[in-house]
Amino acid sequence: MKNYQDFCNDISNTIFEIIDRNGSILKWKQSWQVDGTLTLPVGTSGIYRGGNLFNLLTAQVGKGYTKPVWVTFNQVNNMDGKVLKGAKSQIVYFWKILNKTEVVDGNKVEKTTPLFKTYRVFNIEQTSLADDSIIINDNVSLAEILDNHNIEISTFGNQPRFNLNDDVIIMPKQEYFNSNDDYHTTLLHEMIHWTGHTSRLNRFKAISYQSKEYAEEELVAEIGSVFLATHLGINGDLVNHASYVNSWKQELSPNDIMRAVNNAAKAFEYLIY
Predict the structure, then answer these.
(1) For residues 78 and 131, is the Cβ–Cβ distance under 8 A?
(2) CA 145, CA 232: separation in Å to the nearest integer?
(3) Are 172 and 190 in contact (CB under 8 A)?
(4) What does the DSSP 8-state code read for residue 43?
(5) In 166-252, where does DSSP find H-type helix?
(6) pTM of the model
(7) 198 in helix, strand or coil?
(8) pLDDT for 169-225, tens place per residue?
(9) What Cα–Cα distance (Å) separates residue 124 from each residue in 16, 40, 232?
(10) Which of 7, 18, 52, 81 could be stapled to 76 by a disulfide with Cβ–Cβ 3.0 to 4.6 Å?
């Protein structure tokens, strides 16, 4: 059974293999050939979360599955299906903090205990249920996201960025981009940064350029924009994009990278729900 550190190590290795092979995670997304991989992994309760979202997405793309649904062995049985012979499962994890009260020397003491467990899932194409229509669709449009969150965008200059002090996204004019998809992908990247504001997910601390924290935040934005672009069916590239994490990957530990993946998933969820 894998432990949480194993998941951190595996995802770290996968991310840098993708960057080394493609130049960036968004370039990797542009190379996808199978139409079905343009949908994020879902289970019977909706889109997967955290590191599992990234882990199953890479499995989905790498193994060429055309459907994004992942189910456990018991779920397949409950739907009167069966797992096909030779099918290999993917390991996903679940964890949360348990709070409980203990009595120590006559005094009540609050203690927290982490609960971590793993389970195995199969892509629906690895089962006899592959032709069943059980895909969960909870897509939202980019316009709806911008409207729902009242995201402010100012248009000027040639440098897309999120201005933390003024809480506004700066975007060049759309005609400056090579395509509409490139414009929208760049906007998605800045929208992920936007979620880090103290009034939202409060990700920003003392971040300076050429720092480990800056590299980690760029990784959050890149992975988060891949989640958003996949969800919205956008396949563009970033303007003036540099592979920050590729340059500084020696500074990011597997745990730093897993934290970035989890924060990217949180940012994605914040925007679409």
Answers:
(1) no
(2) 11
(3) no
(4) E
(5) 180-194, 212-232, 244-248
(6) 0.90
(7) coil
(8) 999 999 999 999 999 999 999 999 999 999 999 998 756 666 788 889 999 999 999
(9) 28, 14, 22
(10) 81
